[in-house]
């Protein structure tokens, strides 16, 4: 169930982008999972969850290459064998990496992105997972309540995507005129895949077909739907239209907030969580403009902020009777509902540490890779205009893209055949695209143009 979240993210990201980079986002998401499977087998599981490391920050290599990983009781539950637990946790790392790599949207080269994924999984995800879920992790010992990954998955993906976007740089503003998501049906399909998989993500984190798993599924759906309705209402106040993209965004932000909280809080608190998350994440989409960082797919607004809200709700509404529904964790105290007042500053400290570490370390990794010859993160301006599908892959999500780059504005054939050496200037529907393409083609053809040949019109001459 968690595995189906990977193609869900791919379809979601693809639909949110422009058509000329739609395939590229599917590729980077699916390939990032290939990288994570190797990383998690190689040393990822051991660095995150090995029981023999005691530093509280990162594991050791006790389980390197899945050594010493078979039928012993797992760190998650004594009822689950460790080999199965390692496989399940691999899906979590894969989902998080897929969320992060969306930061390459429409201007990032894909191979440096895959190098980043391996390094990021090792130096960012594994420590965050160790803090929260390893019995020797500092967060676990400190008393942090993080059910299914508010820190490692949600804050980790949101802050890391923001850092990668910062290092990568903004998309060319001249190419962003009249920008809209190109396929809302694909966005909806990806959201539904995510929703289904999230029931395995949150419900499965109870490590058994028990009442706590059922409660987590109920809480996930309640939070998601109230966040979706809230988001749609907030968007309606501006556009006076009912947005399906808004519904999808609200649903995902609600599921994000439910990730750290669904196994801790009662259903009535999930309704409040959904409303608060819808408001916070909706307004959180404005942060990228305040920061000047082109977080193209709003990973920080939905995942980073949603994860923070969910972790804070644990401090107020976590209840011991919900935690004990799995029959294993009956001795864990909740939050303010159980008069555990100190949990608030524990959760806040964990949020601050996770956010700062993920952002700073991800930025350092990205910048370091960018400085390696041949691994610069950013595609050229010409490649960005052409689209990542054409530049990086030579394949397209839709077969008409090669002929109709702007779909409604294309270059029709003329009656007379072109002579050898004639320059054909494709006609683009967006004016600035047309100007850039015209200037580029004229500049390339200028040295070979005969002196008496008529000059091509440039953007300056037409102006």
TrEMBL record:
Spans traversing the lipid bilayer: 21-42, 83-103, 115-135, 147-169, 181-201, 213-234, 241-259, 265-284, 305-324, 344-366
Location of the region described as Disordered in the Swiss-Prot/TrEMBL record: 442-463
Pfam family, one: Ammonium_transp
UniProt KW keywords: Ammonia transport, Membrane, Transmembrane, Transmembrane helix, Transport
Primary location group: membrane
Cell compartments where the protein resides: Cell membrane; Membrane
One annotated Gene Ontology cellular component of this protein: plasma membrane
Family label: Belongs to the ammonia transporter channel (TC 1.A.11.2) family.
Protein name: Ammonium transporter
């Amino acid at each position: 169930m968690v595995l189906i979240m990977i193609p869900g993210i791919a379809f979601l990201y693809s639909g949110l982008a422009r058509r000329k980079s739609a395939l590229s986002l599917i590729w980077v998401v699916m390939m990032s999972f290939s990288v994570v499977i190797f990383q998690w087998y190689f040393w990822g599981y051991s660095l995150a969850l090995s029981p023999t490391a005691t530093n509280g920050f990162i594991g050791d290599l006790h389980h390197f290459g899945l050594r010493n990983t078979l039928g012993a009781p797992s760190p998650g539950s004594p009822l689950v064998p460790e080999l199965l637990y390692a496989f399940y946790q691999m899906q979590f790392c894969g989902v998080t990496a897929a969320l992060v790599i969306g930061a390459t949207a429409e201007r990032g080269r894909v191979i440096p992105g895959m190098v980043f994924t391996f390094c990021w999984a090792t130096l960012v995800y594994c420590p965050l997972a160790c803090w929260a879920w390893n019995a020797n992790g500092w967060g676990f010992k400190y008393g942090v309540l993080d059910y299914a990954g508010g820190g490692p998955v949600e804050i980790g993906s949101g802050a890391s995507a923001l850092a990668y976007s910062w290092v990568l740089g903004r998309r060319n503003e001249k190419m962003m005129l009249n920008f809209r998501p190109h396929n809302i049906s694909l966005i909806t399909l990806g959201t539904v895949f995510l929703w289904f998989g999230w029931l395995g993500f949150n419900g499965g984190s109870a490590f058994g077909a028990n009442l706590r798993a059922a409660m987590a599924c109920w809480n996930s759906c309640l939070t998601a739907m109230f966040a979706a309705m809230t988001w749609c209402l907030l968007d309606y106040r501006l556009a006076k239209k009912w947005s399906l993209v808004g519904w999808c965004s609200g649903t995902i932000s609600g599921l994000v907030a439910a990730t750290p909280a669904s196994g801790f809080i009662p259903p009535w608190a999930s309704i409040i969580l959904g409303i608060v998350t819808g408001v916070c994440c909706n307004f959180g989409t404005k942060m990228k403009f305040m920061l000047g960082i082109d977080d193209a797919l709003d990973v920080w607004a939905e995942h980073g902020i949603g994860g923070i809200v969910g972790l804070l709700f644990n401090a107020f509404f976590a209840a011991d009777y919900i935690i004990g529904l799995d029959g294993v964790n009956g001795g864990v105290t909740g939050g303010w509902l159980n008069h555990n007042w100190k949990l608030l500053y524990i959760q806040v400290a964990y949020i601050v540490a996770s956010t700062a570490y993920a952002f700073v370390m991800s930025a350092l990794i990205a910048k370091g890779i960018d400085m390696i010859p041949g691994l610069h993160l950013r595609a050229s301006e010409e490649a960005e205009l052409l689209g990542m599908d054409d530049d990086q892959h030579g394949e397209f999500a839709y077969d008409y893209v090669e002929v109709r780059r702007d779909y409604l504005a294309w270059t029709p054939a003329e009656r007379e055949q072109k002579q050898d050496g004639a320059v054909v200037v494709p006609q683009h529907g967006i004016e600035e695209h047309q100007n850039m393409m015209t200037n580029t083609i004229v500049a390339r053809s200028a040295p070979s143009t005969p002196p008496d040949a008529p000059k091509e019109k440039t953007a300056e001459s037409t102006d």
